Amino acid sequence: MHKKWIAIIPPYIAVWAGLFLFHSAWGAMLGFHAAIIFALFWLRPNLPPAVLFKPAPWRSIAGNLILGSTGGLGLYVLWDFLGMQAGLSNTIHTLGLGGVSWFWFMAYFSLVNPIIEEYFWRGELGHETSSFYIGDLTYAGYHVFVFLGKTQLYTVILAVASLIFIGWFWRQVYRRDGSLLAPILGHMAADLSIMLAVYFKVT
Known about the structure:
Elements: H1 3-6, H2 9-21, H3 25-43, H4 58-77, H5 88-94, H6 100-111, H7 113-124, H8 134-141, H9 143-147, H10 153-177, H11 181-202
Helix pairs in contact: 2-3, 3-7, 4-11, 6-11, 7-11, 8-10, 10-11
């Protein structure tokens, strides 16, 4: 097995363990990031960290911010159609999110997670092809653990399909711009808008 594909195993395990073994959103998130950092040390990437904030065309940045924001907007508007779990508020509290913790988690998830993920999935594990790439699937795949038990099966499938597309799209943006800035900002907009949609629906 290629070294890079072995590297995705620890992040998958970390998310599963955090959510289903320890029942902790923070455990899943911090474990996920620790696993990615461990994988990066093991892979020893040649990709300079400067690629994260290298200037990108303003149209690319604006387009990614708009596209990312549609994630949370779509979730909020289609909440009932997507069959979101009626007791999701209790599930979220069970995972340790409530009160001030929710806002700290929202900030960390929206500001830190996109930087780590884009460097790992689009940067280190990315590919130059404009076609579908297995890395687009591996990026989307771990999200299954996040959705399981919180919505209907068809919504899980729809969400994973959407994430495969957005993973492919952000990879194309990086391939075109030579910078991860626009994908990072789009990812931040997506994560923040989704967290806000969930917050306003369950509180």
